[in-house]
Amino acid sequence: MKCLVLIGVLVPLCLCASYAALEEDAALPYMPSTMTSIVKPNTTTPHPTTTTRVTNTTAQTVHVTNTTATNLSTTHVLTTVPPTLTPNFSLPETGQYNVSIKNAICIKATLGIQLFVKEHSEDFYFNIPPAKTVASGKCGNLASWIILKFNSGFVNFTFVNDGKHYYVSEISVALNTMKNLEKNYLGTVKNIKLFKTTLGNSYKCKSKQVVDISANSLWILLVNTQLQAFDITGGKFGKVEECFLDYRIIVPICFGVSLFVLIIIVIVVYLYYRRRRFAGYQRI
User: Fold this and answer.
1) CATH label of the domain that carries residue 215
2) I need a labelling partner for 57 at 20 to 30 A (CA). Which of 4, 118, 214, 257 fits?
3) Residue-wise pLDDT tens digits, 250-268
4) Which structural domain range is residue 52 located in?
5) Where residue 282 falls among pLDDT bands split at 50, 70, 90?
């Protein structure tokens, strides 16, 4: 019975460890050393509790030049009414955006985007509405970019191909003429290696990720993110490489399963020995 208990404890733990190791070797993307977990200080409004922060690395920025890609046309119509920021946090709606060249998709993005700023020690949020956002961009062999334009602003992602992997090397944001703040917010983070993924694969992250665009004044929150640039086959995402943050969920789940199995085994062993002792008393 002792062996049974030992096996019951070790098997779930080994399965969890093997699963995590297998998934990590097969799909876990490179994570920059500058990406660390953060919690925004000095705030009384709700914030995402699982985030990452990006700071500059030593990567070299590559700009898109001399490409023959055509801009992606859409049927969305942008209005000139400036959006209003709200002090109340809510998760942004997930949108789907594509950039095409010669009727073939060369950048594919599914994500929810929120911009938030700090004014007078108070945070204000703006969720980018997918239905009122126009996607366009250009694609090249070594660099591509997608720009998402919405009412009085835009978000631009630049992708770089290093031969084996691709990553986001630059993010630019503009949020202009807010009704309630009457201020323009601009910022660019360069020289980064964000969401590094094997060519032909797609980057996916369900966790919330925050990028510091302009120090202490402008941030971008990404949720339900799946991205791919270069080597897109049939207009569909390639093999998924999940972000590191999503893997942190496996540990508590495995621990809970192992604990549950252990409790069940202890109960079974207890009932077994109790029954044997009772049977012995009956024989006497």
Assistant:
1) 2.40.160.110
2) 118
3) 556 666 677 778 888 888 8
4) 14-247
5) low
